[in-house]
Amino acid sequence: MATNDPNARAENDLTTKTTTTKHHPRLEAARSWWTQAWNEGGVLYSLWDDVREAPDAGWHGMANWLKAAVGMSAFSFVVFLFTGAVDVLTDAVGSLLTAVPTVKISDNTSTGVWATIDNPIRSYIAAHSADLPISGPTVYTLWRFTGLFCLVAGFFTRSNGVRLTWTAWGAASIAMVWTTTPDTSRTVAAGVALLAWTLASAFALRGLNLRPRVFNNVGAPQITVRPEIHVPAQPGPADTDNVRHLR
Predict the structure, then answer these.
(1) 75 vs 52: CA distance, rounded Å
(2) Vertex 160, ends 154 and 163: CA angle to 5°?
(3) Alpha-carbon distances of 121 from 104, 110, 124, 131, 181, rounded to whole Å
(4) Cβ atoms of 117 and 193 closer than 8 Å
(5) Each residue of 45-102: pLDDT tens digit?
(6) Maximum alpha-carbon separation in the chain
(7) Which of 84, 147, 175, 240 has its Cα between 20 and 30 A from that of 66?
């Protein structure tokens, strides 16, 4: 049942008007800020002006915030490509290692001097790769490929990283020969492995010089002779009064 009290209707109208006028100042403030921001000297106007002038200003002349935005975008893009490339490379390496011919590392098939080095390494890898995610033949193939790659790359590139890898590979190989060879022949086998690795290092470590470089650029001092004549100041007419002649 509707009430006939006029005061209640007035209160309802007042509440409606108050609610309506409460939202209008926010909307007007937002419109005012938007208009001022796009006016000359405003925030949005300055940002858009930086973007518009960026092609003509170049990298060194553009705004710092644009450099940061472009740098972050480029970095994110590179990380995205690198993540995809790592997945592709991992799959390719896995497929390549799977296609490697199976080598029976437990069988000592090498002969001659090379057997003194290769057979202990085969036995060591076969004995210590049983619990690995990859098979023993794959480990042996990687070991041989690493040594061959460092030998060739060290000869042509003279890279310090490749040389360090070659040094670590040789030390690991000699350690495996020393560990696996029986006690009666251990010293001789390790010596043969060390001599073979040293001979191969002449190619892998080509151009390596452990002496510090000293640059002597001190030459004879250059002396420039510039002849000049200095004439002492002569007394003027005003100074002649001070001269007294002897009588």
Answers:
(1) 23
(2) 45
(3) 12, 11, 5, 17, 9
(4) yes
(5) 888 888 888 888 777 878 888 888 888 888 787 777 766 666 666 666 666 555 555 5
(6) 149
(7) 84
Span 60-74, pLDDT tens digits? 878 888 888 888 888
Structure-token pair, residue 96? 């390549």
Amino acid of residue 26? R
189 close to 108: Cβ distance less than 8 angstroms: no
Nearest-angstrom CA–CA distance, 151 and 166: 7
Residues making up the chain, counted from first to last: 247
**Alpha carbon distance 118, 109 (integer Å):** 9
pLDDT at site 26: 81
Query: Position of tokens 């001092």?
Result: 221
Distance CA 16, CA 116 (A): 100
Burial of 136 (0-12, 13-18, 19+ CB in 10 A): buried
Three-state SS at 122: helix
C-alpha 83/C-alpha 239 separation (Å) is 94
- Six token digits for residue 146: 């690493």
- Cβ-based neighbour number of residue 47 at 10 Å: 14
Provide Rg for the chain, Cα atoms: 44
Q: How far is CA 227 from CA 221, 222, 230, in A?
A: 19, 16, 10
pTM, 2 dp: 0.48
How far is residue 105's CA from residue 124's CA, in Å, rounded to a whole number?
Answer: 9
Supply the DSSP symbol for 206: T
